[in-house]
Specification:
Helix content: 10-25%
Shape: globular
Strand content: 25-35%
Protein name: Class C beta-lactamase-related serine hydrolase
Distance between the termini: 65 Å
CATH topology of the largest domain: Beta-lactamase
Pfam families: Beta-lactamase
Structural class: alpha+beta
GO molecular function: hydrolase activity
Keywords: Hydrolase
Strand order of the largest sheet: 12-13-14-15-17-18-19-20-21
Number of helices: 12
InterPro entries: Beta-lactam-related (IPR001466), Beta-lactam/transpept-like (IPR012338), Diverse_Enzym_Activities (IPR050789)
CATH class of the largest domain: Alpha Beta
């Protein structure tokens, strides 16, 4: 069985999934405009269907955000299996260098299990982007209730957990997992993790891997810690990790295990910001995993969950179904044509010729943009502007995506607070009415985010609105601005 795991099934029907159901899911995603990057459906250990929205592919590594927490949980389980850690160990014992002079008793009482089930003594995550030592903030933040009593989602809990693993093993937690879990399941060699400012792994949010990597790790959990006949992590730990350990029904959830969410209908899930998901249903022998960036859509994640549940999960058959070659062909054609959709609207406007190459002088504004102009050339364009960081250019497609780099410098690289390269992005624009050009920019790097901008041209004046959804970047692109044609500027 091990050799057959994660190999393509003969067809979706061969594992009890109608091809029409998967096609209906894809059509619904497109109709709702959900920014999905990839999906993977596994039944009975075989890949029933898989697809990627260009430019993403099966080999693309992707930020998993809080799915990272589930990876950390398994590293803790492996350490427990090795006899080097216990669930009831007090976490303060691992951090004598970070404790305040007189630690609160709630901090001293906090155990590894408390952190695993998000039952810290805190009411929120203790660190911020500006903090230089995220693990230390956990012990500096004033606690407000006994640990182990109530659920409060706290990413600092995961930072503490993966730091414990790294202090005990002397290596990054993913390196510790490599021989014991990642290599046996055939995970890619490119898995890595963004670092905290102090240089440990950011296990709460920073794992970067392929969709298949995430799905394989989830599949191990769905099978009680086994990969085929290999017991990679103890069944007892996995059963506890994937079952309800604490109530979180006030947040309208079904429970929480050890850094893993409990789902209705006997399932569990890895969940990450922006709709990085692995939904597992052991009784149905079914796994649905996806990568996406729905941060810029208020209901994108909800739409995605409803779509897979109603179109696919609800239509599973316990047994193989009759083959439907025409439906299978149509499904594959749909998958082959998947691509990230551009900004919707008209491809041109009479206004385009009037403003092309014309500089606008901007009034003081929250973005600090002092001037801007647009240059149009067929189905592409360039937005030029000047802000506090200098002069910038962003190429965009009209009715299509154009890949490039977002021009703003200074954003974090492989380590939070340490500047990296400019982020990769996809940019598009379209005319939503004769006077209004809307722009849509997806940042598609190790950090994911969305920038939406609207430029309205009224005579010699311009009105601008920019909104961004991105964690700790694109802050320079949020707010309103106005300006007018600069008759003194020279057009090139």
């Amino acid at each position: 069985m091990t050799n057959r795991l994660f190999t393509p099934a003969a067809s979706p029907e061969s594992v009890g999934i109608p091809s029409e159901a998967i096609a209906a899911f894809l059509q619904r995603i497109k109709r709702l405009g959900v920014n999905l990057h990839g999906f993977l459906i596994v039944r009975d250990g075989q890949i029933a269907s898989e697809g990627y929205w260009a430019p993403y592919t099966a080999d693309s590594t992707h930020r998993m955000y809080s799915v990272s927490k589930s990876f950390v949980s398994l590293s803790v389980g492996l350490l427990i299996d090795a006899g080097k850690l216990k669930l009831n160990d007090k976490v303060a014992a691992f951090f004598p260098d970070k404790l305040p002079p007189a630690p609160h008793r709630y901090l001293l009482d906090t155990t590894v299990r408390d952190l695993l089930m998000m039952a810290t003594p805190h009411d929120r995550t203790s660190y911020s982007f500006k903090d230089k030592d995220w693990a230390a903030t956990f012990f500096q933040h004033q606690p407000c209730h006994p640990p182990g009593t109530v659920f409060a989602y706290d990413t600092a809990a995961t930072v503490i957990l993966n730091t414990i693993v790294e202090r005990i093993t002397g290596v990054p937690f993913l390196t510790f997992m490599r021989e014991r879990l990642l290599d046996p399941i055939g995970a890619s060699k490119d898995i890595w993790c963004v670092q905290t400012p102090e240089g440990t792994s950011w296990g709460g949010s920073g794992v970067i891997c392929t969709l298949r990597d995430m799905a394989k790790v989830a599949y191990v959990c769905m099978n009680g810690g086994r990969w085929g006949e290999q017991q990679l992590i103890s069944e007892q730990y996995v059963r506890e990790a994937t079952s309800k350990q604490i109530d979180n029904s006030l947040g309208e959830r079904s429970g929480y295990g050890y850094q893993i969410w409990v789902e209705p209908d006997g399932g569990f899930a890895f969940r990450g910001m922006g709709s990085q998901f692995a939904f597992c249903f052991p009784k149905q022998r079914f796994l649905f995993a996806c990568i996406a960036d729905t941060q810029g859509s208020a209901n994108g994640g909800l739409y995605l969950e409803q779509a897979y549940r109603e179109e696919i999960l609800a239509r599973l058959s316990h047994d193989p179904l009759p083959e439907k070659e025409s439906a299978q062909t149509e499904l594959q054609q749909s998958i082959n044509g998947l691509h990230i959709l551009p900004q919707p609207g008209e491809l041109t406007s009479p206004q385009a010729g009037a403003i092309s190459n014309q500089w606008f002088r901007m009034e003081p504004n929250p973005m600090g943009i002092t001037r801007m102009r647009f240059r149009f050339n067929g189905d592409e364009g360039v937005w030029e502007y000047t802000n506090a960081a200098g002069e910038h250019q962003l190429a965009f497609g009209i009715g299509q995506q154009v890949a490039g780099q977002f021009p703003q410098p200074g954003y974090s690289g492989a380590r939070i607070g340490t500047v990296g390269d400019k982020y990769r992005c996809l940019a598009s624009a379209a005319w939503v009415d004769p006077q209004t050009l809307n722009m849509l920019v997806y940042v598609t790097d190790h950090y994911l985010g969305t920038l939406k901008a609207s430029f309205n041209f009224k005579g010699d004046q311009i009105g601008v609105l920019m909104t961004k959804v991105a964690e700790w970047f694109l802050n320079e692109y949020n707010g309103f601005a106005g300006g007018c044609l600069d008759s003194a500027a020279v057009s090139e």
